[in-house]
């Protein structure tokens, strides 16, 4: 794991808690250093191989910031639990999240990956080939997410993953609820948006949009939500039977 994939603004000194029973119960007293050490451990737990690292480096260079490994591992987990045959990703970037999803999906499953940048999709195609996936496993659509999503079939997908324009997350949710089948999963990256969502003083448009999304998902009776502190935050929800 290249150190550059983790933000370098955390504390440099890790304070260890004593290993007493009380300490085990005292997570609320853990220092920021302890929490960061545990977060990094969780991010590295599954880890990335060389193919993912290369795709992540290309994405980072082009500004298509890839999902962190903790989020990637969760996406692969979701796809495997669902034995997913049809997945949509909104904001495919240079292919990192796509590889994680494909690695969990049914071997005959098809990933529909939407991105507005043709160059990002060219590199995603390269990454999928390097990961050993034939072109028949992917459908890459170049365009504005909100133009493309309405053209996709109702209840036609096992999983919808969103990682494009944060201020459009609410619109992606509306489309995703329509696209995913009952029992399927909807997921959003950056649900903690650089630690800004939890801080009510942060009022920029992207932070407000991600915060509002969290409330909508939590309060929607059609969904069973969960918020993971993996990566930059992964919000997920299962679509219930009506
Ligand atoms: C954070 S990157 C996605 C990274 C990718 N999920 C990965 O893990 O490699 C966001 C991507 O969304 C695309 N994007 C931004 N706005 C978009 C829009 N309105 N419609 C479609 N794609 C968009 C960008 O071109 C970029 O590739």
From TrEMBL:
Gene3D superfamilies: Vaccinia Virus protein VP39
PROSITE patterns linked: SAM_OMT_I (PS51682)
Cited InterPro entries: Cation-dep_OMT, SAM-dependent_MTases_sf, SAM_O-MeTrfase
Pfam families: Methyltransf_3
Keyword ATP-binding belongs to the record: no
Assigned keywords, A-Z: Methyltransferase, S-adenosyl-L-methionine, Transferase
GO molecular function: O-methyltransferase activity; S-adenosylmethionine-dependent methyltransferase activity
A Gene Ontology BP annotation from the UniProt entry: methylation
Designated name of the protein: O-methyltransferase, family 3
Organism: Acidothermus cellulolyticus (strain ATCC 43068 / DSM 8971 / 11B)
Phylogenetic placement of the source organism: Bacteria, Bacillati, Actinomycetota, Actinomycetes, Acidothermales
């Amino acid at each position: 794991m290249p150190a550059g994939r983790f933000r370098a603004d955390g504390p440099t000194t890790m304070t260890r808690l004593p290993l007493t029973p009380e300490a085990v119960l005292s997570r609320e007293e853990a220092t920021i250093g302890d929490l960061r050490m545990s977060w990094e451990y969780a991010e590295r737990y599954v880890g990335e191989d060389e193919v993912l690292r290369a795709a992540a480096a290309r994405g980072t260079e082009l500004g298509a910031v890839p999902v962190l490994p903790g989020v990637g591992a969760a996406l692969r987990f979701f796809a495997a639990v669902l034995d997913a045959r049809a997945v949509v990703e909104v904001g495919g970037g240079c292919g990192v999240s796509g590889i994680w999803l494909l690695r969990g999906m049914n071997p005959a499953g098809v990933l529909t990956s939407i991105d507005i940048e043709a160059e990002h999709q060219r590199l995603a195609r390269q990454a999928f080939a390097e990961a050993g996936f034939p072109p028949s496993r992917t459908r890459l659509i170049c365009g504005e997410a909100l133009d493309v999503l309405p053209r996709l079939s109702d209840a036609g997908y096992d999983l919808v993953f969103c990682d494009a324009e944060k201020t459009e997350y609410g619109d992606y949710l509306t489309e995703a609820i329509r696209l995913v089948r009952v029992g399927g999963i909807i997921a959003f990256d950056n649900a903690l948006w650089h630690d800004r969502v939890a801080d009510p003083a942060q009022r920029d448009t992207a932070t407000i949009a991600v915060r509002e999304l969290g409330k909508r998902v939590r309060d929607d009776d059609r969904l069973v939500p969960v918020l993971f502190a993996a990566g930059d935050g992964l919000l997920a929800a299962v679509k219930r039977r009506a």
